[in-house]
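Deviation from plan, reported transparently: phosphoenolpyruvate complex.
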Amino acid sequence: MSKSITFTIQPGGKLCGETRVPGDKSMSHRSIMLGSLAEGVTHVTGFLEAEDALATLQAFRDMGVEIEGPSNGCVTIHGVGKHGLKEPKNALYLGNSGTSMRLLSGLLAGQPFNSVLTGDKSLSGRPMKRVTDPLAKMGADIKTTEQGTAPLQITGKAGQLTAIDYTMPMASAQVKSCLLLAGMYAQGETRVTEPAPTRDHTERMLAGFAYPVTREGSTAMISAEGSLKAMDIDVPSDISSAAFFLVGASIAPGSDVTLKHVGINPTRTGVIDILRLMGANIEVLNEREVGGEPVADLHVVYSPLTGIDIPEHLVPLAIDEFPVLFVAAACAQGQTRLSGAEELRVKESDRIQVMADGLLILGVDAQPTPDGMVIQGGKPIGGGVVESHGDHRIAMSFSIAGLRTQAPITVLDCANVNTSFPEFKDLVKALGLDLVCTGA
Ligand SMILES: O=C(O)C1=C[C@@H](OP(=O)(O)O)[C@@H](O)[C@H](O)C1
Ligand SMILES: C=C(OP(=O)(O)O)C(=O)O
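Because the crystal trials were delayed, the predicted structure below was used instead.
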């Protein structure tokens, strides 16, 4: 991947029009995983054709699953059944994708073959003990580096995993999903309790594939009793990608944007709640249910924002949206304070430090704290050159900031936008952002 892609944004634009952002990344990963384990043929539409989801797709091809596509978001998966995966010939390379690595570690722990999971520089620095420790309690054998990072060397323990009753120390859908997938191969009932609600796409999709998974309060439960029946999946647009337009339209006077067919699962809509608390004008229209997931069109019109103390219960429900919410805070009158979000430090980059560094370059008073940020907003924002640190959400967030800076902003190292949203620059330009992409 080239490091030399640069986005340069001229100030003063606004966003107007209608668009459909690409498919949900979390659901795209899970559609490949569960479709591969199902009996029969699963058809997926709306699949996210971006590097992270494609890494998952390639990993299952490497384990012998026949997968057609993707073509225009359509993927056909010829499921091999719960016990049909084959030993991959080489290490499974998962690129930048934490979701792929953590969910696969659980799934592969109980297979009758060994496997190795690797990733790029960013993924190779992210904590994996959060999955390998509870998996070890189930009888898994997974070696990490001394720092608890990838590569993960998995010795398959088919028939030897036992269920655990585990309370997660952090609110993580990746850890929960990893353990539920391991629980499909473990003796007894695996119980995973979350300290706060996290995205529940794994549970919903398992139920869609007719695999028994139950819930008691904050505990999800699964066992090895069951099989997956192929189904058709329509992946809605990713609210995490829609978030760039929700913030962009909210901060740029004259904006008026409609985002079609967005997934509004309540475990994902923290960004709407937070923006509304700040004074944003967002309407949720045409609510419907598609394949077990709520979907709607979102209409957002410019509205002056005010700083708030972000309620901590909303943090896991907006976890990937904080980089762009920091941009909203920089444009909001008064102080915005985020706490309880230390997880942001272990994403594709340290999203607290990297955003604070970039905002300071633009002249925004942004004070990082161990678990969040305090931003004094509402003052004029300058231009300048900021680094994305190879993190897709940082690159797109600073591009959106260009709607309100007083001079051009240049965002370096933007190739990683392909991780989750390759169409970003085209869609945002079509709605009115003056963005020029240079480099190759
Ligand atoms: O389960 C998922 O698909 C994801 C869960 C979240 O990570 P954590 O579970 O580490 O919070 C999120 O940040 C990530 O982008 C996708
Ligand atoms: C954190 C993210 O993804 P992952 O953990 O799958 O790399 C993200 O997309 O913002």
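Residues 26, 99, 172-174, 177, 199, 319-320, 343 surround shikimate-3-phosphate (ligand 1) (CB under 6 Å). We consider this an acceptable substitute for the interim report.
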